[in-house]
């Protein structure tokens, strides 16, 4: 029996990328069929598209954290991500608003490319210092996973998937989801955070067993 | 973005929750501080 996994996450979310890797490890250990759908969640909707400054600046000025504490913490996050095979580069990272990125992910879902684009956007943001908040940059990244560039530009300009993003965020609020990543298995079992792969395997097995 | 220490919620909506309550999440624009593996 197939298991449907709904995942709420943001692009600008270091634990979402780590959680994605840990979930993928679980998928590699699980033999059943799994259907995955990503849902939109905005951690900082007030972030400007073109934030002028570094990640340290953002956290120090906007969140009130001392710069030295921020640097130390980002260093720890980078080290931990490396243990999952991720090369976070917070010096190169371009802080931005992720609302448009979520809209492209909905377009990608309509074309069966959502998982590919999710990975591409996370990699672009955390490892490559690419901008993931502007129409043209998002269109370039979407084209890399096989989406039609012109269609992406038109959809983002017209706000074709703006309501879909809003619906995901509303659903998260209705469920009481306050943090991401958040995984829902067959609409019944919840897993919050970047858990150990064994937790995800257990959730998959439990969800599959319950649906038989 | 990473920020102040936040931990995973233990109760969420209509779901049967599995896993560690303290698994790291990002919430309200800030994220759990990572605990590095012991070498």
Question: Overview of this structure, please?
Answer:
The complex is a heterodimer of chains A (212) and B (39). Chain A is an alpha+beta fold and 212 residues long. Chain A is 54% helix and 10% strand. Chain A is built from nine helices and four strands, in the order βαβαααααααββα. Chain A has helices at 14-29, 55-62, 67-83, 99-110, 114-126, 135-144, 149-158, 162-175, 197-210, and strands at residues 3-9, 34-40, 182-185, 189-192. The longest helix of chain A is centred in the middle third of the chain and has 17 residues, at 67-83. Chain A is globular, with a radius of gyration of 17 Å. The termini of chain A are close together. The mean pLDDT of chain A is 95. Chain B is mainly beta. Chain B has no helices and three strands. Chain B has strands spanning 16-18, 26-27, 30-31. Chain B has a two-stranded antiparallel sheet with strand order 2-3. Classes of the chains: A alpha+beta (212), B mainly beta (39). The interface between A and B is large, with 48 and 32 residues. β4 (189-192) of chain A pairs parallel with β1 of chain B, so a sheet runs across the interface.
């Amino acid at each position: 029996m197939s298991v449907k996994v709904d995942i709420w996450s943001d692009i600008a979310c270091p634990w979402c990328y780590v959680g994605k890797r840990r979930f993928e490890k679980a998928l590699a250990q699980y033999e059943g069929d799994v259907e995955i759908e990503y849902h939109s969640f905005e951690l900082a909707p007030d972030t400007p598209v073109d934030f002028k400054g570094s990640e340290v600046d953002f956290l120090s000025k906007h969140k009130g954290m001392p710069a030295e504490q921020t640097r130390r913490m980002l260093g720890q996050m980078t080290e931990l991500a490396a243990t999952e095979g991720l090369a976070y580069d917070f010096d190169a990272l371009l802080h931005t608003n992720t609302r448009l990125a979520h809209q492209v992910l909905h377009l990608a879902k309509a074309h069966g490319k959502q998982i590919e684009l999710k990975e591409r956007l996370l990699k672009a943001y955390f490892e490559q210092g690419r901008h993931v908040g502007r129409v043209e940059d998002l269109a370039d990244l979407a084209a890399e996973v096989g989406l039609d560039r012109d269609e992406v530009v038109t959809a983002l300009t017209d706000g074709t998937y703006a309501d879909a993003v809003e619906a995901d965020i509303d659903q998260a609020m209705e469920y009481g989801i306050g943090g991401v990543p958040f995984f829902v298995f067959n609409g019944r079992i919840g897993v919050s955070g970047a858990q150990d792969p064994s937790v995800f395997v257990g959730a998959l097995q439990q969800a599959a067993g319950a649906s038989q | 973005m990473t920020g102040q220490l936040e931990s995973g919620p233990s109760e969420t909506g209509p779901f049967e929750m599995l896993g560690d309550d303290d698994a790291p999440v990002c919430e309200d624009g800030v994220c759990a501080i990572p605990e590095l593996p012991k070498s």
